[in-house]
Fold S-adenosyl-L-methionine-dependent methyltransferase.
Amino acid sequence: MESAYFDPYDFISDDSSNESVSEVQDEDYDMASSAGSDGTQSQGSGSSASSGDAMSISDVASSFQEKKNRVFSPRPRASTMSSYSYHSSEQFRTPSPSNQSLTASMRETLYREEYGRELNTFSDVYRLPADEEEIDRLEKQHNMLVDIFGAKYPPPMGVALRQGHYEPTKKVLDLGCGSGAWVKDVCRDFPYCEAIGVDLVPIDDSDPDFPPNLRMEIDDLNKGIEHFYDSFDVVHSRLIAFGIRDYRRLIEHMTRAVRPNGVIEVQEYDFRTYTRDNKLIPANTTDPLGTYPWWATFLAHVREGVAKSGGDIRAATDLESWVRSHEALTDVVYRDVYLPVVPGNCRRYQEDVYTRMKDDVMAFLRSLKPLLMGSGVSEQRYEYLVHHCVRELHESETPQYVRMQCVYATRRPDVLLEPLPPVE
Ligand SMILES: C[S@@+](CC[C@H](N)C(=O)[O-])C[C@H]1O[C@@H](n2cnc3c(N)ncnc32)[C@H](O)[C@@H]1O
């Protein structure tokens, strides 16, 4: 099966003298734009390779604009959290939501302040903020990723969520849903499905556009999701490895949570940087001389911080082999998507996608303060790293890419799985 993912290399050119880019061909995979009113999709025939035709910067900009306009879910509004559905304790993790106002005392229970940012109180492993600034970053990042991928969903998801007359209601589970940007899109694009988002903190459900077919469960995924077994047609997780102790175990849970012929999709970064030709850029945290690029060094600190707090920093690297080797998963599609965190030419910022990428990574630098300082990095060193990373964004002539490792697969109906043994 061919990959649905759009490779940003198709439009990124290093040749700054003519600033040409090659053509974007991903029409078949913009599931949202081809969704019928009942939320079902007409499937594309496969990913077209780039034709190599030159395209000017303004062509690319308008191509992105066009794509943005085709994404029909409403744009997110500013987050003002006021109420939520709450399932807090380990004993009460399974469905039956109750809507309550988020009182000051509940806020105190759910959030704590560290280094000027609000973090969740539920997990010591996940140490990125959960405040409005971070929610705003996640919303924008989601929209940027949709535009870069040229698709919101992998093709088999449309099939898995196609609702037949005599079938049980189709269900979607989003693990570590964050702002809820992805799962809210799902609820709008597939209005006949029901979706559950799980996270350490609630999604803002005060928005009048909050989908009626979405509910939220507050829980720590490290405690297991056995109550979800065999219940969903799609199980999704994206960029949650920082908070997961054992990602392979989570994949095992996901495989048991999905119904026969359902789809799992997982997307993670390995938090390293790469050259234009996909070579790993080395870095370590102890180099005092700035031998390595600053972004690579910053991410080395991030990996160290995540490892110290118990997160599974190797997850992205092993994703493909875990999924491919799983006896109950089939039709595995894997794709690396390289995203230009450092453009290597600041004139790129005339292009919408690079500006959005820069905004995302600048906000990401700020979000990492509690993790880095909590892991022993001094404030002086943190500020020094940020300063140099920002300079690199604007001045470096050498691009750096991060690799998003993306995989989706279908649950085989003919393989039965035993429940996982409890963690010792
Ligand atoms: C970087 S955000 C990504 C959010 C969303 N998946 C997206 O792609 O926009 C990571 C999210 O995973 C959640 N998360 C991390 N570890 C978790 C855990 N152990 N249990 C539940 N949620 C977790 C965090 O609270 C955060 O909202």
